[in-house]
Design a protein that fits this description.
Blueprint: E1 7-9, H1 11-16, H2 22-37, E2 41-42, E3 47-50, E4 62-70, E5 76-84, E6 95-103, E7 109-114, H3 116-134
Parallel strand pairs: 1-7
Antiparallel strand pairs: 2-4, 3-4, 4-5, 5-6, 6-7
Helix pairs in contact: 2-3
Length: 148
Amino acid sequence: MEPVTIRWLGRADVLAAGGGDFAAALDDVRAGFALIAGGRATMPAEISVGLGSREPALPGARAYALPARLDGERPVAGLKWTAHRPPLDDGAPSILSTTTVNDALTGRPIGIVESAGLTVMRTAAVTALALETVAPPALRRIAVLGAG
């Protein structure tokens, strides 16, 4: 049996691979929604736990597990693990995230990706797709509200 090799992609690796390309993110989001509509992808409900080293947990801090499976060109299953916390004096961002990806046909792990930047791109791409879908074609201005 071939040994399991897990590849790690940090933020710089993700950007070098095109993770900052908004047009590609929008294409990927379109493809993902098409897979969901065609019954070829699933995204079960997320679960979460409070963060903190003792009770009560760190106020407002939670870690979320978001599983998904895509049966696209290369079927994969993955789990995004994201921790949301108040700003601390440690220099780290208040949202930290990794995604573990497995081959959906064999279960073999493929890699772990630092995914906070990808989450930002995906969130913006979903918003753009929603506007494309429901907004009138002559839309000239939009307002973006919220901190998420």
